[in-house]
From TrEMBL, chain A:
GO terms for biological process: respiratory electron transport chain; tricarboxylic acid cycle. Belongs to the succinate dehydrogenase/fumarate reductase iron-sulfur protein family. SUPFAM superfamilies: 2Fe-2S ferredoxin-like, alpha-helical ferredoxin. Residues 150-179 form the 4Fe-4S ferredoxin-type domain. This is Succinate dehydrogenase/fumarate reductase iron-sulfur subunit. Its cofactor is [4Fe-4S] cluster; [2Fe-2S] cluster; [3Fe-4S] cluster. It comes from Flagellimonas sediminis. The lineage of its organism: Bacteria, Pseudomonadati, Bacteroidota, Flavobacteriia, Flavobacteriales.
From TrEMBL, chain B:
GO terms for cellular component: membrane. Gene3D superfamilies: Fumarate reductase/succinate dehydrogenase, transmembrane subunit. NCBIfam families: sdhC_b558_fam (TIGR02046). It comes from Flagellimonas sediminis. The lineage of its organism: Bacteria, Pseudomonadati, Bacteroidota, Flavobacteriia, Flavobacteriales. This is Succinate dehydrogenase. Keywords: Membrane, Transmembrane, Transmembrane helix. It comes from the Bacteria. The chain crosses the membrane at residues 12-36, 56-81, 107-127, 158-179, 200-221.
């Protein structure tokens, strides 16, 4: 299998980047997309050229590291997957594949396809946790949680913080990420004591980081590897209003 | 803690937008008088127009309406400027139509077309009828300003007929996305309810855009 990669190359956050073309032969349909990039990097090493910088860790869709924009879509042409779950069989022999880093002012490019997503960490620092005594594990049934509540919390706790929601959003809004993290904890009894503070502080940090507004295009839920629904954003708005009124 | 700017601006857009949606229902119901035969329509329409101008309650509502249109536009502009800053660099390739609708991605552009429509519409009616500027409007048989005649002559100009009808397409698109999004922005998150609100928004947008869009044609054919 032979494809042409058009990949964004950028030395560091202070330099200007550009798309560079690479014709790559010797790929197979069974290769994952990241393996195809590995293959290209091996060819670059042999030619004594700088390898393409991109992030990955688990290669099984749970770490959220491998986010890149492939042929005009976050994580490639399929809905609700990560880049590491994308395989070369999704492309045809002779295809041109354009690979770009996430685009958002809050996610500056560090090198080639790697962006700095620490803005998400700073949002988490403002309330993406519960305050509890550490020590031995508490009795499992000490706090009873209805199944539907734990299910809904789990649905959003599944967010892996990959940043595809921000990347695909025309406004670079982090509303889906923030709402997932807020609703996860605010809907559980353990999160209730800090619920009002959490929603206000995490969303305030989101604003400080320079993310845009949500326009409800719905693109984020299509690109989210966990399929987190945009109704969570509406729920976050409701929680925010409640916190402002009663918090 | 300070009010979140991102949320505050969207809430203003949603709140003013919902009010404008209500206004359009009232506006359309009254304008359907124009579809009646001329002998009935002229008198009825002119009396209605006089009531709108002279009733104190409606007058105060009209000031709220002007204010809300201005607020809707200003906040849309502020949000757009902020959003552009949040995404300064575009993708070389972006197939956004595979994950969202064209309308949802272009609300600003569609809104600008509607704003252009509003300016032309106000210049044709509001400036002449309310401000008394431009060509003098005659009185009808019972002494009301003959606003029907203003409409009648305007919609016998084929260019205006086309303009008024074509611009109802962006209005319909804007209303469909705007209405269902407004519910979400205002914190309505019941999943089944949102599915219903999406259907209601679509039906509403179709009725309003086609409802307004057919009027110029009907008047033109009279």
């Amino acid at each position: 299998m032979k494809v042409t990669f058009k990949i964004w190359r950028q030395e560091n956050r202070n330099t200007k980047g550009a798309i560079k073309e690479y014709k790559v032969d010797g790929l197979t349909e069974d290769m994952s997309f990241l393996e195809a990039l590995d293959h290209l990097n091996e060819l670059l090493v042999l030619k004594n050229e700088k390898v393409i910088a991109y992030e990955y860790d688990c290669r099984e869709g749970i770490c959220g590291q491998c986010g890149v924009f492939i042929n005009g879509r976050a994580h490639g042409p399929h809905d609700n997957i990560t880049t590491c779950q994308l395989h070369m069989r999704s492309f045809k022999d002779g295809d041109t594949i354009v690979v770009e880093p996430w685009r958002a002012a809050s996610f500056p490019v560090l090198k080639d396809l790697i962006v700095d997503r620490s803005a998400f960490d700073r949002i988490m620092e403002q309330g993406g946790y519960i305050t509890a005594k550490t020590g031995t594990a508490p009795e499992a049934n000490a706090i009873l949680i209805p199944k539907e509540v734990s299910d809904s919390a789990m649905d959003v706790a599944a967010c892996i913080g990959c940043g595809a929601c921000v990347a695909t959003c025309k406004n670079a809004s982090a509303a889906l990420f923030a709402s997932a993290k807020i609703n996860h904890l605010n809907n559980l009894p353990q999160g209730h004591p800090e619920a009002h503070k959490r929603v206000q502080e995490m969303t305030y940090q989101m604003e400080l980081e320079g993310f845009g507004s949500c326009s409800f295009t719905g693109a984020c839920e299509v690109e989210c590897p966990e399929g987190i629904s945009i109704t969570n954003i509406a729920e976050m708005y409701a929680k925010y209003t409640k916190a402002k009124l009663f918090g | 803690m300070a009010v979140n700017k991102l949320f505050f601006r969207k809430t203003i857009i949603a709140g003013t937008g919902l009010f404008l949606c209500l206004f359009l229902i009232v506006h359309l119901s009254a304008n359907w008088i124009l579809l009646l035969p001329e002998e009935t329509a002229r008198e009825l329409y002119n009396s209605y127009a006089t009531t709108l101008r002279e009733n104190l309650f409606i007058k105060s509502i009209s000031y709220i309406l002007y204010a809300f249109i201005v607020l809707h536009v200003i906040y849309a502009l502020l949000i757009t400027i902020h959003n552009r800053k949040a995404k300064p660099q575009k993708y070389v390739v972006n197939h956004f139509l595979q994950n969202s609708t064209w309308t949802s991605q272009n609300m600003g552009l569609i809104g600008t077309m509607i704003l252009l429509f509003i300016v032309v519409h106000l210049a044709n009616f509001w400036v002449r009828v309310k401000l008394g500027m431009g060509e003098i409007i005659e009185l009808d048989a019972i002494g009301n300003l003959d606003v029907y005649e203003v409409t009648f002559s305007l919609f016998h100009n084929i260019y205006y007929v086309i303009f008024y009808t074509i611009l109802m397409i962006p209005l319909g698109l804007h209303l469909n996305h705007g209405l269902k999004s407004a519910f979400k922005t205002l914190g309505f998150y019941h999943k089944k309810g949102l599915r219903i609100s999406a259907k209601v928004s679509l039906i509403y947008a179709v009725i309003i855009s086609i409802g307004f869009g057919v009027i110029p044609f009907f008047v033109y054919l009279k």
